[in-house]
């Protein structure tokens, strides 16, 4: 993966962006520059996981965020990795030398004993569960983040999404909500036939939401110890098999019906379709701010195989992978 990706251009703040300036040496503020930036009230925090399998998608996602935001110098990325940390940090630094970011080591043993096999083996990767531990991994001064999957691009300003108010319902998170989905599909007959379990959703308008795009209030998460709540459902799953779909159902069990809904334009998901049948998806009706290739098919895989779906052409301009015949050093 060394020198595999091109260097992205540098992006600068618009004139009206709030400045994150370094503190004066004689002030009482923390003089550690990294800490100062991270704890600044003006910072916009984005969290993603990183691994060698999806790094190409991650690089495109980062570029799309920076290219479309009005205040790129105020964006701070928080990358969670479980292996190849030095390599991944170096790869990000070389392609984005001006990027403000931190890398965190996720100890897979924290969650590996809680994971049950799902209908897709790719969903069983421990790193898929790292989003449940962000409140533990990130500094306490980071109070609100936007979590993004690696298989997406933004075509709008992420600051709009990050500014989603979470005061409604005193909510912990916000995400696009899909209330027309068949919610029973996400849980097994064992779950629905058990009155004490199915009552989980009593008095809640439980709607599906995709956990690949979320705005999370980390302060409320920590106060409510929501990591433990998710782990408790995972422990029950090990005993009773109440769902089939990896890391999503525990989030639904804890949060469905109690989130702040975000406009659907912020997660046009499902574009991955089905690689095995070559199924290509179209966009949902309405405006688009974020395109998400959730599902089996990833745009870089289809492009490399010369079998792209039409919408993969929208991802391709953000691909930083060097061509095999690149003359760049």
In short:
The chain has helices spanning 33-39, 55-68, 85-95, 109-112, 134-137, 158-162, 189-192, 195-198, 218-224, 226-240, 248-255, 299-304, 312-315; strands spanning 44-49, 75-81, 100-105, 144-148, 152-154, 173-178, 208-209, 213-217, 260-262, 290-292. The chain has one domain: Spore Coat Polysaccharide Biosynthesis Protein SpsA, Chain A.
As a whole number of angstroms, the C-alpha radius of gyration is: 20 Å
Number of helices: 13
CATH classification, class level: Alpha Beta
* Domain unit count: 1
Summing up helix and strand content along with how strands pair, one would put the structural category as alpha/beta
Shape: globular
Query: What kind of sheet is the major sheet?
Result: 8 strands, mixed
> Can you tell me the CATH architecture?
Alpha-Beta Complex
Mean pLDDT: 89
What is the number of strand segments?
A: 10
Low-confidence stretches: 26-31, 325-329
EC number: 2.4.1.-
GO molecular function: glycosyltransferase activity
InterPro entries: Glyco_trans_8, Glycosyltrans_8_dom-fam, Nucleotide-diphossugar_trans
Keywords: Glycoprotein, Glycosyltransferase, Membrane, Signal-anchor, Transferase, Transmembrane, Transmembrane helix
């Amino acid at each position: 993966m060394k020198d595999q990706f091109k260097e992205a251009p540098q992006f600068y703040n618009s004139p009206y962006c709030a400045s994150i300036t370094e503190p004066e040496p004689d002030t009482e503020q923390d003089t550690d520059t990294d800490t100062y930036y991270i704890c600044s009230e003006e910072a916009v925090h984005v969290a993603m996981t990183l691994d060698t399998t999806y790094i190409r998608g991650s690089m495109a996602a980062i570029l799309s965020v920076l290219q479309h935001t009005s205040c790129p110098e105020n964006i701070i990325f928080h990358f969670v990795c479980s292996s190849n940390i030095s390599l991944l940090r170096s790869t990000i630094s070389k392609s984005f030398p001006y990027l403000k970011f931190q890398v965190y080591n996720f100890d897979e043993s924290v969650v590996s004993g809680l994971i049950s096999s799902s209908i897709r083996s790719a969903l069983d990767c421990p790193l898929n569960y790292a989003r449940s531990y962000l409140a533990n991994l990130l500094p306490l001064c980071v109070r609100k983040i936007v979590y993004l999957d690696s298989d997406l691009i933004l075509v709008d300003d992420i600051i709009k999404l990050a500014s989603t108010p979470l005061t409604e319902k005193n909510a912990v998170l916000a995400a696009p909500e899909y209330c027309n989905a068949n919610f029973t599909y996400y849980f097994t007959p064992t779950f629905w036939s058990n009155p004490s379990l199915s009552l989980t959703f009593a008095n809640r308008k439980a709607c599906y939401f995709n956990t690949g795009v979320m705005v999370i209030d980390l302060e409320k998460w920590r106060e409510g110890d929501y990591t433990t709540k998710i782990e408790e459902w995972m422990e029950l799953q090990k005993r009773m098999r109440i769902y089939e779909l990896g890391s999503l159902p525990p989030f639904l069990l804890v949060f469905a019906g109690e989130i702040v809904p975000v406009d659907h334009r912020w997660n046009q998901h499902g574009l991955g379709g089905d690689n095995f049948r070559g199924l290509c998806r179209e966009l949902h009706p309405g405006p688009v701010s974020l395109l998400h290739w959730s599902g089996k098919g990833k745009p870089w895989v289809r492009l490399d195989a010369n079998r792209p779906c039409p919408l993969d052409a929208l991802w391709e301009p953000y691909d930083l992978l060097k061509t095999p015949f690149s003359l760049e050093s």
